[in-house]
Amino acid sequence: MTFRQRYTGLIERYRDLLPVHDDTRLISLGEGNTPLIRLNNIPRELGVDVDIYVKYEGLNPTGSFKDRGMTMAVTKAVEAGSRAIICASTGNTSASAAAYAARAGITAFVLIPEGKIAMGKLAQAMVEGAVVIQIAGNFDDGMRLVRQVAENAPVTIVNSINPYRLQGQKTAAFEIVEELGRAPDFHYLPVGNAGNITAHWIGYSEYSSGDGHSVTAACNYCEGHCRFAGAVVGSRPVMVGYQASGAAPFLRGHMVDDPDTVATAIRIGHPQSWNQAWKVREESGGWFDECEDDEILATQKLLAEKEGIFCEPASAISLAGAIRDIKSGKIEPNSSVVCTLTGHGLKDPDTAVKQSTGPMIKIAAELDAVKQAILDNIS
Ligand SMILES: *Cc1c(COP(=O)(O)O)cnc(C)c1O
């Protein structure tokens, strides 16, 4: 009997495809290796013959895909001798930076927009010991300040302009190709700074060019004995990026100064990976589109109610977009579609509770009352 190696995070797993050395001290919390879940009930109800998968990135250690990039960024910061990291954040980057800094034993400074951060994310940054700096401004203001202060303060920026972030995040594409045996036909992502859509394209491109862990390369994780050995080289998906209508610079064709949306994780008007994302669109033959807040929330609820998967509002826009494009015929039958669910629903309990219409029944603590409540509500 052979035992599978204990999973110790994405850098270890994809070591030969990432910029680390043999003696680099890895700062990891076991991130990556997230489930790719095939939706059952939603496609059936839509009456469509499309394979829809969701990549549940909310199951990373701090509840969002940011951990993929943060393990790399903090590993490299520590390797370079840095004692502190800094980021601007709509919430998830700060939660992740705080956790990896704690793990590494260094300080995290996080700039967040006052009053516009989901409660779960704020709780994480605070309990993980980050220095939380609330600014009377939005993410874009924070980003500008972080760039300026890092020029002469001894801190490493861990926003996605740090190139190691995208290197870590590209591994999500590797996992998808390995799991499906090929790239999907379409990949849908929410777009804020556009770092993640760029990172996925890097990952798919490396894999398809054969640089990746593929048919011939032995899997460094399992030494060639796993179900992944045999992934098809040469395929890349069409990349589709969705933005909230109130924060949609890629749809307007220019930066937006007062971004606003319930999907706080993508409440960004000045995307940092602007040029890269346009290139991804062009090279992949993809497109950008937008959704209103009510459609985002309705899809968050649909996914939770019909499939039991709880993601945060920003994440739901990927599925909202895919459903819309399936209905309009942009996606042909028999296609495979992957939607990235970027963050966990528990990040933003307030928004979830506010929009829940499910029955909340108040009764006396008596058997008859419980029985009656069951009879009244059984379907
Ligand atoms: C950061 C984040 C995004 C946006 O990703 P970008 O790389 O900035 O485009 C989307 N959803 C969630 C939950 C996030 O935390």
From TrEMBL:
Residues binding pyridoxal 5'-phosphate, per UniProt:
92, 192-196, 342
Q: Looking at its record, which EC class is this enzyme?
A: lyase
Q: Name one GO biological process term.
A: threonine biosynthetic process
Cross-referenced Pfam families, in alphabetical order? PALP
GO molecular function (one): pyridoxal phosphate binding
Q: Which reaction does it catalyse?
A: O-phospho-L-homoserine + H2O = L-threonine + phosphate
Q: Where is the Tryptophan synthase beta chain-like PALP domain?
A: 27-343
Does the keyword Lipoprotein feature in the UniProt annotation?
Answer: no
Q: Which domain of life is it from?
A: Bacteria
Known EC number? 4.2.3.1
Keyword list, A-Z: Amino-acid biosynthesis, Lyase, Pyridoxal phosphate, Threonine biosynthesis
Per the entry, which co-factors are needed?
A: pyridoxal 5'-phosphate
Q: Which residues carry this modification: N6-(pyridoxal phosphate)lysine?
A: 66
Note the NCBIfam families from the entry: thrC (TIGR00260)
| Role of this protein | Catalyzes the gamma-elimination of phosphate from L-phosphohomoserine and the beta-addition of water to produce L-threonine.
The record's family statement is: Belongs to the threonine synthase family.
Question: Which protein is depicted?
Answer: Threonine synthase
The lineage is: Bacteria, Pseudomonadati, Pseudomonadota, Gammaproteobacteria, Methylohalomonadales
